[in-house]
Each structure stands twice: as structure tokens, then as C-alpha cells.
Specification:
The complex is a heterodimer of chains A (113) and B (111). Chain A is an all-beta fold. Chain A is 0% helix and 50% strand. By secondary structure, chain B is mostly beta strands. The chains are: A mainly beta (113), B mainly beta (111).
């Protein structure tokens, strides 16, 4: 039972580099989202998708892009990494956008030097 | 976004009860959640309560909701060392696409 799978678990980048954080779910969930977790700030929503081909911005979208070409995958792209993007990133999914249960992946710890 | 507040730290002795508190500002909240995060892991949904309920019990966990004061609490009976984790309170009006999280309370259980 894989659930929500994120890769990599850890990543170190230099300022200005780009990379993609991967997220996949095997539960046929329509809704997927990305959060970042920073000390003392809880989780903040970056982007979300209510279905394949549909994405929208959350609370803190600047510096990140997403796409949803399939139901299963929802990659998060950092276009030009900045130290302010040092954080722990969580992908989450739910059966639908209005379902009450949200399931999380195990996270990607990203450091930008 | 909405405001969800929690104290940052709580320490209890093994076998005692733990009570983690949360306050929120949005009176339209429909769902109120407790998530648990163990070290190096993602958030695990522990339990949730609908806003038209006052209490929900699930084995060692009791959730109390005071809607008038916008106060949510999680009581863990007979706290064990395996309960040591960060506990996040969250609220939502519409469900998964609209969750607002608190900062988390780090629970430390002392043997």
C-alpha cells in the first residue's frame, strides 16, 4: 500500500539551480496539493490540483510551478532556487477536493545554499 | 488565511493524560482535524470532528470542540513514549482543498 510517494527524501541545491520534486499517488485521488513546512509557521499551501489538467495557486505559489498531466503524478518545480525556499515539502492527496480526508507523503527536505 | 493557534511545546509523564489545545478564528469551519507527525515522517490523520459535534472519542483519543469559544482540544489518555510527536490542529470549511494548519505542538513523553 504505497499511498502518496515523494522523491527525493533529501536534496541540497545551490542558489539559482532548478529541480523537480516528484509526487505520485496510487489511490486514484482527484485532488493533489503541495505544502511547505517551516519552523513556527505550520504548513502553507503552495499549489493544488482538482484533477488532471487543472492546477491552481495556493497561499505561497511564487517561485514554484506545477503540472498535472496524469491523475497519479503532481510534480513541483523550483525554477531558480533561493535560500528562502529551504523547507520541508509535503505532497498530499484526497479523493476529491471536498473530501474531508487529506493524506500526506513523507516529505522532501530541501536545503538551498 | 485563517488563524489557527497552538502552544508550541507540551511535556507529560508516561501514563498521564495529555491535553493539546487549539484555537481558531473562522466560525464557518466545518471540519476540525488533528494530525500527528513523527520525526522524519509526513502528517498522519489522527481524527477529525464535524463542527456540529461537541465530542468524539476513539480509543485513547478524545476530541472536544467548543464552537462558541472556537476551541478544540485533543486528550490522549495513558500517554506512551510512542505518542511523542508534533500534533497539528487544522480547520477547513470545504474539506481537503481548504485546510489551514496551526504551528504544531511538540509533545514530549517523559519515561
Amino acid at each position: 500500500n504505497a499511498g502518496v510517494t515523494q522523491t527525493p527524501k533529501f536534496q541540497v541545491l545551490k542558489t539559482g539551480q532548478s529541480m523537480t520534486l516528484q509526487c505520485a499517488q496510487d489511490m486514484n485521488h482527484e485532488y493533489m496539493s503541495w505544502y511547505r513546512q517551516d519552523p513556527g509557521m505550520g504548513l502553507r499551501l503552495i499549489h493544488y490540483s482538482v484533477g488532471a489538467g487543472i492546477t491552481d495557486q495556493g497561499e505561497v505559489p511564487n517561485g514554484y510551478n506545477v503540472s498535472r498531466s496524469t491523475t497519479e503524478d503532481f510534480p513541483l518545480r523550483l525554477l531558480s532556487a533561493a535560500p528562502s525556499q529551504t523547507s520541508v515539502y509535503f505532497c498530499a492527496s484526497s479523493q476529491t477536493a471536498t473530501n474531508e480526508k487529506l493524506f500526506f507523503g513523507s516529505g522532501t527536505q530541501l536545503s538551498v545554499l | 488565511g485563517e488563524d489557527v493557534e497552538q502552544s508550541l511545546f507540551l511535556s507529560v509523564r508516561e501514563g498521564d493524560s495529555s491535553v493539546i489545545n487549539c484555537t481558531y478564528t473562522d466560525s464557518s469551519s466545518t471540519y476540525l482535524y488533528w494530525y500527528k507527525q513523527e520525526p522524519g515522517a509526513g502528517l498522519q490523520l489522527l481524527t477529525y470532528i464535524f463542527s456540529n459535534m461537541d465530542m468524539k472519542q476513539d480509543q485513547r483519543l478524545t476530541v472536544l470542540l467548543n464552537k462558541k469559544d472556537k476551541h478544540l482540544s485533543l486528550r490522549i489518555a495513558d500517554t506512551q513514549t510512542g505518542d511523542s510527536a508534533i500534533y497539528f490542529c487544522a480547520e477547513s470549511i470545504t474539506g481537503a482543498n481548504n485546510l489551514f494548519f496551526g504551528t504544531g505542538t511538540r509533545l514530549t513523553v517523559i519515561p
